């Protein structure tokens, strides 16, 4: 009998999803007008502890608008880590700005804060131009280290933007502050593979009234109130539909339960792999509470990683290497860099993300564990 395919990260619907979607159909509010958009924004802002939330058609759109409202223009620098999904960086190029690609640190697998702090201090000392924005990504549900950067950016007028697309629910510090709410602006994604999905969608959060107002304006074609179709700048059609927001609201209601499921999945992987010498589990960082959105491990060599990946795929199990670092791909090959990129390259060459769906049954997870253990010991 053929075994079921095990996906990497699939949506987990249920709850009020069907009821809210039925409500959209019954009321005919299926497009950009309807009560769920405002409700999703309000409930999302309350969940993460932000003053404002602005819904967008995708996480990429959210980042594009966030960079725009933070004043990024052609010729400005935006620092972003080289090891991330390409959507973190593309909006920088949409605006004609220059992405500066930052190497990773091994502790969190996110951008190396020491490299950035050192470069800021060096530039300040010689009076060189500073980046307009530092965009910190929290990859795979693990918070980046913002500790040193928050005061340094404040002191030198650099805006901190958080790409929290993969890290909804992750927190830092003893007061459990949500990622996305630490910088001036934070962005999230509700793509189908994320911890909650609206089919496709994104959210911008900020405590800044003016930035939130402008972000909303830009996502709605920069249209002014009234019937005359007047617009005061070039905006975007980046609104979230009422149907997508309805799904988002239903998913948000279940987020705590989903976060708990991810912790259980991570704990089972942790204990199964604890004594495997040539496999390192995901980062464990005392000051942060990660979500393990995608539970990812590091092998001691690329050959071993590739062999395990191959046998997982042959057994109908979806697993993925980490992303190719941006500096190795055509659109970013000539971008300036901070650091050599060697840490990011090692993580990319040896990292493997394992099935982590919220609804992953224990017996399917055991299949994944058995294949990884067999491959890792070879
Ligand atoms: C780190 C990161 N940034 C941005 C995005 C873009 O989000 P979206 O796919 O909703 O446009 C994603 C995911 O897709 C992501 O993983």
CA gyration radius, whole angstroms:
21 Å
Helix-residue proportion:
25-40%
Shape: globular
SS class: alpha/beta
Overall pLDDT score? 97
- The CATH superfamily title of the largest domain: Type I PLP-dependent aspartate aminotransferase-like (Major domain)
CATH architecture grouping of the largest domain:
3-Layer(aba) Sandwich
Strand content: 5-15%
Output the CATH topology of the largest domain: Aspartate Aminotransferase, domain 2
Helices and strands in order, then pairings?
Elements: H1 17-27, H2 35-48, E1 52-56, H3 59-69, E2 77-81, H4 90-94, E3 98-102, H5 113-126, E4 133-137, H6 149-156, E5 159-163, E6 171-172, E7 177-178, E8 185-189, E9 202-206, H7 209-219, H8 242-252, H9 255-273, E10 279-280, E11 288-289, E12 296-299, H10 302-314, E13 320-321, E14 337-338, H11 342-350, E15 351-353, H12 362-376
Parallel strand pairs: 2-3, 2-4, 3-14, 4-5, 5-8
Antiparallel strand pairs: 1-9, 6-7, 6-11, 8-9, 10-12, 12-15, 13-15
Bound molecules: pyridoxal-5'-phosphate.
What keywords describe this structure?
Aspartate Aminotransferase, domain 2; Aspartate Aminotransferase, domain 1; 4-stranded antiparallel sheet; 8-stranded mixed sheet; 2 domains; alpha/beta; 378 residues; 14% strand; binds pyridoxal-5'-phosphate; 12 helices
């Amino acid at each position: 009998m053929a075994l079921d395919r095990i996906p990497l990260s699939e949506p987990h619907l249920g709850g009020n999803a069907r009821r809210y979607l039925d409500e959209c159909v019954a009321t005919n509010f299926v497009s950009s007008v309807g009560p769920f958009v405002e409700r999703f924004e309000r409930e999302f802002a309350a969940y993460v502890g932000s003053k404002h939330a602005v819904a967008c058609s995708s996480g990429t759109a959210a980042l594009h608008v966030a960079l725009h409202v933070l004043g990024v223009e052609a010729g400005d620098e935006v620092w972003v880590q080289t090891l991330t999904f390409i959507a973190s960086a593309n909006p920088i190029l949409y605006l004609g700005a220059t992405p500066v690609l930052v190497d990773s640190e091994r502790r969190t697998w996110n951008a190396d804060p020491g490299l950035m702090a050192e470069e800021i201090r060096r530039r300040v000392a010689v009076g060189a131009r500073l980046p307009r924005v530092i965009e910190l990504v929290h990859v795979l549900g693990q918070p980046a280290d913002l500790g040193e950067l928050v005061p340094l950016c404040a002191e030198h007028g650099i805006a901190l933007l958080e790409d929290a697309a993969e890290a909804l629910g992750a927190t830092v510090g003893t007061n459990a502050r949500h990622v996305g709410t630490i910088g001036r602006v934070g962005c999230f994604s509700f793509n189908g593979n994320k911890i909650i999905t609206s089919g496709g969608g994104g959210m911008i959060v900020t405590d800044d009234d003016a930035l939130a107002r402008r972000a909303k304006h830009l996502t709605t074609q920069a249209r002014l109130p009234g019937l005359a179709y007047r617009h005061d700048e070039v905006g975007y059609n980046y609104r979230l539909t009422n149907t997508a927001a309805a799904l988002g609201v239903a998913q948000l209601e279940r987020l705590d339960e989903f976060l708990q499921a991810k912790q259980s999945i991570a704990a089972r992987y942790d204990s199964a792999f604890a004594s495997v010498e040539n496999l390192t589990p995901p980062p464990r960082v005392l000051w942060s509470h990660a979500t393990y959105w995608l539970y990812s491990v590091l092998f001691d060599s690329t050959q071993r990683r590739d062999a395990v990946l191959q046998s997982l795929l042959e057994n109908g199990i979806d697993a993925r290497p980490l992303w190719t670092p941006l500096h190795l791909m055509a659109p970013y090959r000539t971008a300036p860099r901070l650091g050599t990129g060697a840490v990011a390259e090692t993580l990319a060459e040896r990292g493997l993300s394992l099935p982590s769906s919220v609804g992953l049954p224990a017996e399917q997870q055991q299949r994944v564990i058995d294949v990884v253990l067999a491959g890792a010991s070879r």
